[in-house]
Design goal:
By secondary structure, the protein is of the alpha+beta class. Helices cover 40% and strands 25% of the residues. Strands 1-2-3 form a 3-stranded antiparallel sheet.
Length: 68
């Protein structure tokens, strides 16, 4: 699986803003993951921590911040 890091700070900030906003709206972790899928994102659990990935191919975007 290839790793794709967003190098554009503005693009990464927008992705993190979506993650944070949807987490605030969701009542559970499962609902949050379902809402993220609607935006084309998923959370993948790895040995190094959780990673935000792009659907449908699972390309890694960035590490999931600890606060989420």
């Amino acid at each position: 699986m290839s790793s794709t890091q967003i190098t554009d700070k503005n693009g990464l900030a927008q992705v993190l803003a979506i993650l944070k906003a949807e987490r605030a709206k969701a009542l559970s972790l499962r609902e949050w993951k379902h809402r993220l899928a609607g935006y084309g994102f998923a959370i993948k659990h790895t040995d190094g921590g959780d990673v935000v990935t792009a659907l449908p191919h699972g390309r890694e975007i960035c590490a999931l911040p600890a606060g989420l």
